[in-house]
Amino acid sequence: MKTAEAWSELPLAYAPVEYLVREASQQWERDEAMALRRAVFCIEQGIFARDDRDAIDDHALLLVAMSCNAGMPEQVVGTVRIHRGAAAGEWWGSRLAVHPAFRSQGHLGATLIRLAVSRAHALGCTLFLAQVQLQNEPLFRKLGWTTLGECEVQGRAHARMRADLGFYPPCHDPVSGFVTRARVPR
């Protein structure tokens, strides 16, 4: 009888080497993104009772971070949505979520944020806003965001923040998106 390691050259503790971050283009990507949002916002954080979907999902663009195996996407491990605001040129980002097992990568949330703002920028955004959970405010500040004030969302304190569009060149090809590599331990 052969062991699992004998069947594969990959170690049993295999971790993806690269991630594809792009606009969701297939139904399985959208389905996994929505399941991830439910797991993070309903089960893990308890912000919503059953589902976090709302009317914004009907017109928002859904972005996903996917782990890749042999260059092919295989699992959604992060997501965020973007949508137009009430004023001309205003865009919002919301529902940023990264699977707990992939948060240690440290760059997936930042790459999702970068694509979100860059994609909106390509679509005519002149003001990009988000309501950010307070524990995530330092990450957004590192990425060129300014805090405008505090607000409450679903009974939790958030920072209302604005992206500096100068940090985010327009992304005109959201389906190709960005490829990011896993961090290698030193």
Write the SSE topology.
Elements: H1 4-7, E1 18-23, H2 27-44, E2 61-69, E3 72-84, E4 90-98, H3 108-122, E5 127-133, H4 137-142, E6 145-153, E7 156-163, E8 178-181
Parallel strand pairs: 4-5
Antiparallel strand pairs: 1-2, 1-8, 2-3, 3-4, 5-7, 6-7
Describe this structure in words.
The chain has 186 residues and is of the alpha+beta class. The protein has one domain: Gcn5-related N-acetyltransferase (GNAT) (Aminopeptidase, 3-Layer(aba) Sandwich), CATH 3.40.630.30. It is 23% helix and 35% strand. It has helices at 4-7, 27-44, 108-122, 137-142, and strands at 18-23, 61-69, 72-84, 90-98, 127-133, 145-153, 156-163, 178-181. The chain has an eight-stranded mixed beta sheet, with helices on both faces. The protein is globular, with a radius of gyration of 17 Å. The chain starts with a helix and ends in a 5-residue tail after the last strand. Mean pLDDT is 89; it is low at 1-8.
